[in-house]
Amino acid sequence: MQKKYLSLLLLIWLSPSQASQLPKDFVYLRDIDPSIIQDMRYAGFHNFVGRPIKGYAAQECILTRETVLALHHIQDELKKSHLSLKVYDCYRPQMAVDDFIAWSKISSDLTMKMVAFHFKE
User: Fold this and answer.
1) Paired strand residues for 62
2) CA contacts within 13 A on the Cβ side of 82
3) What is the CATH number of the domain that holds 74?
4) Residue ranges of the chain with pLDDT lower than 70?
5) Domain containing 62: what range?
6) What is residue 16's predicted lDDT score, i.e. its pLDDT?
7) What is the tally of structural domains in the chain?
8) Are 65 and 27 in contact (CB under 8 A)?
9) Full-model pTM
């Protein structure tokens, strides 16, 4: 498992043209089922930090083939009722967790922290 995780982290650091080969058993969700809605918020500014998170270089959902096939099966069932799956971010590399922790410790960075605080009221 650690080997797959490390391979995925290396992939994230590559440019899209260099990343054409995914680690063994990993696939792009869009290649198996493009009808599943992807919302890769950590790759952009619309998230609780307010900026792209380290480790999310592209707005692409990358998962194990087994996971994508299971999601595809569920999506097929949902389509019968005119519904759809929506996935968020799809993976969480350690560098993203480290980025979240570092952000939480910056007391002067209040913009998104204040937004989160007001939603709790």
Assistant:
1) 28
2) 0
3) 3.30.1380.10
4) 1-20, 109-121
5) 2-120
6) 44
7) 1
8) yes
9) 0.67
Q: Name residues whose C-beta falls within 8 Å of residue 53's C-beta, 6 or more positions apart in sequence.
A: 42, 43, 47, 96, 99, 100
pLDDT at 11: 42
Element spanning 112, H or E: helix 111-120
List, as one string, the DSSP characters of 1-70.
-HHHHHHHHHHHHS-TTGGGSPPTTEEEHHHH-TTSEEE-GGGSS-SSSSSPPTT--SS--EEEHHHHHH
d(CA 82, CA 76): 10
Question: What is the pLDDT at residue 76?
Answer: 98
Structure-block tokens of residue 35: 């009808």
pLDDT value of residue 6: 41
